[in-house]
Prior knowledge:
This protein is α/β, with parallel strands linked by helices. The chain is built from 12 helices and 11 strands. It has helices spanning about 10-20, 25-35, 90-100, 125-140, 160-170, 190-195, 220-225, 230-240, 250-255, 260-265, 290-295, 325-340, and strands spanning about 35-45, 50-55, 70, 100-105, 150-155, 175-180, 200, 210-215, 245, 270-275, 305-310. The strands form 2 sheets. It has an 8-stranded mixed β-sheet, sandwiched between helices. It has a 3-stranded antiparallel β-sheet with strand order 7-8-9. Residues about 1-30 and about 345 have low confidence and may be disordered.
Amino acid sequence: MRRTFGTAVAGLLAAVATILAGPGPSASAASQIRSCTELDIPVTSGLLAETMHATLCPPAGSHVGAPLQVLVAGGTYNRNYWSGLGLDAYSYSARANAAGFATLAVDRIGTGASSHPLSILVTAGVQAEALHQVVARARSGALDGQQHDQVALVGHSLGSMASVIAAARHPHDVDAVILTGYSHRIAPDQLLTSLTSMHPAALEGHALDPGYLTTVPGVRAGLFHAADDVDPAILAADEATKDAASATELPDGALLGLTPATSRAITAPVLEANGGQDAWACTAVDCTSADTLRAAEQPNFTAPLTTYVQAKSGHCLALATDGDQFADYASEWLHHVLVAGVGGSRS
């Protein structure tokens, strides 16, 4: 269920939808013909001097002046979340590229191919500062020789919390923010369930200190997915590719990233998108519809807020069977607020 932008932009959205559904490359085809680049981006924060690894993928057609989406995955996931965990049909990045956006999918510090410092030093604040430096490099042309004048932060779960902190601390960094698997109220019992489903990643053979946690085997389907809206192949890939996260990242992520005082400092338009069956973001918040989600979340923002609910999906919206609907909606919304330059509330 989605909140429409209004009749004033109906023509624009229809044109975008036609492009997305037309004879251009499908998400699978786009992922096969595009040429992505692996990057190690130096970042510093406090005592840390690390590298943030990222995959930069160009848009279909002309690359010059294309808006850039910086994609930030959630806890125990890495940048491969955005490429469908290796399953092309579920690649958010490929669909975004086909819609005319460049994408930069990052590994948060302590995940994937990024640096792994002592876990106690890795906080959501550190991740936010790293994102700020990555965006600054993108805007200056230091990433790929092209100055990206329009940048959107796109987060999932813990990555959404880091994105909120980054966009609030550095409001001139980004032109739009998309938050998924996110709301300001988390049910205590669900938080307890999540914490008791974790153990040190070292117990599964990873050469990491005990402060790096991952999910215990066999729980990811129930934590992150809705049974009626997930491909068994995604469940298998999810367990096989699961990553770790620093135990110190969640406390300040929740303290800062879920605090209304932080989110109200964001000046860019915000899209908050959740699965209606999200046990994390939608237990204490009503995600029955886009309207009920917006009613609950609008007081936490001063920036224009658009809400989207994918009724059957769980926490990992982009990996749901119908995750392509969210990916296409996100592209339509970004075309609206970036390419068309239309601000204000879309209700």
